[in-house]
Design brief:
By secondary structure, this protein is of the alpha/beta class. Among the domains are: 309-313 and 324-421, no CATH class; 430-575, Ribonuclease Inhibitor (Leucine-rich repeat, LRR (right-handed beta-alpha superhelix), Alpha-Beta Horseshoe); 613-740, 3-Layer(aba) Sandwich (Rossmann fold).
Length: 754
């Protein structure tokens, strides 16, 4: 259950005892929410380097005296919400480093006759008490000199010996849950010189009779007093205001989640006679006044508010401050009316002429203001105002011009339903927040603006830098931004913070190159890199922008397509050149012709044979063929009927078809071979397509006539069957002598008739 840092979590595992085998390496041991009932001497003996031990929410009722003896380095011990019926000083005597001790939620009624904490010299925070805790005695806190925080659950505390808390010289923050008013008064008196901030919860404050100071002398230490979930009446509150003036060090007064039963009918004469209040800050949050609409105007309290500097009243149904009263807040610098019921008509009364003369910051957010023009006009009566928050009011529209306080520097108009920004926005601003308004553009000229917040709008690009040259911080979080360029970023010369997180970025190569190689971006972008995620392309959707790397093909698609086209063109060009050199086209055309011929019958019917021979010859040998051979054969007795392409081919018919048809209609094929025949294009390629069918059917149908001597090796390789015939068959040679020529014609005629 331990991680690399030796933090061991065994919580909620149903353990009945502290597991054995603990080693000196362990620094944190979490055994909370188990069923442990007892801590024995040997349980923690080996955990000498333990710094935090969490044992809350078990059933511990018994702890051996030396159980924590070896934990000299322990800084946090949580024994809260167990069943300890008493506390023993012996438990803590060796915990010299302990800073935080939690003992609340057990069943002890007191802390014993002496102090259980006398050896805890480094203790910083102490939590104790429970619903059964009823007695605090003198000496219970001996040994503790300084505490950062003291929390006491004394909801049923019935006995407090005066001076019990005086042994603690300084407590920064003391929280006590108490219901007894007498004990409250005594504790306040004991804490006047030691506690800086006293927080009292769940008290039902009656009308106090005795002084809270009595024989104590100033200077006092207590500066802040907070009431939480307390109950007041007009009478008890009125009396408390008088008595609290005696604590001259008190500067801050708070009431949070309290209830006031009354209508503001206070004893203003007694309050006035008691003198000026030293309180400078009053904070009232979520105070419930049953009939708040009947609350009176607090006439007579004017003298008590002249020195007040900060006033916060939030979520308390405030709907107006009378003008007469508002004019007496002479020193008030900060006023917060967040989440109340102020409307424009009542704001006219609240911020009247001469009211709040020193006010610098005003918060009117989340009220019921409807007119931005009127709101601006009313606040312009505040001569020193420089910070105004009117966010979360439903203005709906914005005028073209407005009157604002002259020195206004901060304006919050977020979530006010304004559809655009106009020149109503004051030129003096240094900080402007218009987040959450569905704005589609921002183009205002605001030369003094340093911070601009445009989150949760509909912007598709960064605003232009020229109208806001001094901008230091810009937020465009959760807009419709899909990228921004290096030029856009660098145009903001003084930019120190840019929040463009939670947008739907298109991770293009240009955007990624800029984002990943701009060194300054990592220091400027808020939320980098976790909040910057790609939305497209689909392959990288959901990935962090900083971690995405696109391929060369994805980044330079047009260039790659161009290169591929060029390569394909070169390949085609190369294939054409190779094909031309090695007669590939010839082979292809021959194959096509052969396939065509294959589909026809192998032999034409006898009635279709009309020629004795088809003559294949070179054009250069046409004189011998046409004037010598044709005359000799066609004038013979009986005559031979020869097929010549010049004479017998059907005009307009494809030459290949003419060749194949002529061969099929001829009993023989006569080839007149010569050097011209070999060196030329072999009587045109179309004539040579006949070879496939001719030699595939019957080699005896071919008659070779050598017009002049020729070697079979000189015949091109593509005429493989012709080469084979010349090597295996007898052929006729044209002789030079006339006597031999007669024999040549005789043999040729016999071959044709065979």
């Amino acid at each position: 259950s331990c991680d690399a840092s030796q933090l061991c979590s065994c919580s909620s595992m149903g353990l009945d005892f502290i597991p054995p085998g603990l080693t000196p390496k362990i620094t944190l041991l979490n055994l909370a929410h188990n069923r442990i009932k007892r801590i024995q001497s040997q349980d923690l003996q080996q955990a000498v380097n333990l710094r935090a031990l969490l044992l809350q929410s078990n059933q511990i009722s018994s702890i051996d005296e030396d159980s924590f003896q070896s934990l000299a380095k322990l800084e946090l011990l949580d024994l809260s919400n167990n069943s300890l019926a008493h506390l023993s000083p012996l438990w803590f005597r060796h915990l010299f480093s302990l800073q935080h001790l939690h003992l609340q939620g057990n069943s002890y009624r007191d802390l014993g006759q002496s102090s259980p904490f006398s050896s805890l010299r480094n203790l910083s925070s102490l939590h104790l008490g429970n619903p059964r805790f009823s007695v605090i005695r003198q000496g219970n806190f001996e040994g503790i000199e300084l505490l950062h925080k003291l929390w006491i659950d004394g909801s049923n505390l019935s006995q407090y010996e005066q001076g019990s808390l005086k042994s603690i010289k300084a407590i920064n923050h003391m929280i006590i849950n108490i219901r007894s008013i007498n004990i409250f008064s005594e504790i306040v008196r004991d804490c006047l010189h030691s506690v800086t901030w006293l927080e009292v919860t769940e008290i039902k404050l009656p009308v106090l009779k005795k002084s809270l100071v009595q024989n104590s002398t100033s200077p006092f230490r207590i500066q802040k007093l907070t009431f939480k979930e307390a109950f007041f009446t007009d009478q008890s509150l009125s009396r408390a205001l008088v008595l609290l003036k005696e604590i001259t060090s008190l500067k801050v007064l708070e009431a949070i989640n309290c209830v006031l039963e009354g209508q503001g009918i206070w004893n203003t004469e007694e309050i006035t006679r008691s003198g000026q209040s030293f309180v400078e800050t009053i904070t009232i949050k979520k105070v419930l006044i049953q009939n708040f609409h009947l609350f009176i105007d607090l006439e007579g309290m004017e003298s008590q508010i002249t020195n007040l500097k900060r006033l916060t009243i939030t979520s308390s149904n405030v709907f107006m401050v009378p003008c007469k009263l508002a004019r007496y807040f002479l020193s008030l610098l900060y006023l917060d009316f967040h989440d109340n019921l102020l409307v424009n008509n009542r704001l006219d009364e609240t911020v009247c002429e001469g009211s709040w003369p020193s006010l610098q910051t005003l918060n009117l957010s989340q009220n019921s203001l409807k007119s931005l023009e009127k709101t601006a006009n009313y606040t312009s009566r505040l001569p020193t105002l420089n910070n105004l928050d009117i966010s979360q009011n439903n203005f709906g529209e914005i005028p073209d011009a407005c009157t604002w306080p002259k020195h206004l520097k901060y304006l919050n108009l977020s979530s006010t339903q304004i559809p655009k920004v106009t020149k109503c926005i004051p030129l003096s601003l240094e900080v402007l927040d218009v987040s959450g308004n569905n704005l589609q553009e921002f183009g205002l000229q605001l030369s003094n603006l340093k911070e601009l917040y445009l989150a949760r709008n509909q912007l598709k690009t960064l605003p232009g830098a020229a109208p806001i040259p001094n901008l230091v911080a810009l937020s465009v979080r959760r807009n419709k931004l899909n990228s921004f360029s290096k030029e856009e970023f660098e145009s903001f010369r003084r930019m120190e913070l840019l929040d463009a997180s939670d947008n739907h970025f298109i991770c293009s190569c240009e955007f990624l190159s800029f984002i990943q190689h701009e060194a300054r971006l990592a220091q400027v972008l808020v939320g980098w890199p976790d909040k910057y995620v790609c939305d497209s392309p689909l392959a990288v959707r959901g990935a962090q922008v900083g971690a995405v790397h696109l391929s060369l093909m994805e980044c330079h698609r047009s260039l790659m397509v161009s290169l591929i086209c060029v390569l394909m063109f070169l390949v085609i060009l190369l294939l054409v050149a190779v094909g031309y050199k090695y007669h590939v086209v010839w082979y292809l055309r021959m194959t096509w012709a052969w396939l065509q011929a294959k589909r026809k019958p192998k032999r034409a019917p006898p009635k279709d044979v009309t020629y004795d021979a088809f003559v294949s010859y070179s054009e250069n040998d046409s004189e011998w063929v046409e004037n010598t051979m044709v005359r000799e054969l066609e004038q013979a007795c009986p005559p031979f009927h020869l097929c010549l392409h010049k004479r017998d081919f059907v005009p307009g018919k494809w030459i290949v078809d003419n060749i194949i048809d002529s061969i099929e209609k001829s009993r023989k094929t006569l080839f007149v071979l010569s050097e011209h025949f070999v060196q030329s294009e072999w009587c045109k390629y179309e004539l040579d397509f006949s070879h496939f069918r001719l030699f595939d059917e019957n080699n005896d149908a071919a008659i070779l006539v050598l017009l002049e001597p020729i070697q079979s090796q000189a015949i091109p390789k593509r005429f493989c069957k012709l080469r084979k015939i010349m090597n295996t068959k007898t052929y006729l040679e044209w002789p030079a002598g006339e006597e031999q020529q007669q024999m040549f014609w005789f043999n040729l005629k016999i071959a044709l008739r065979s």
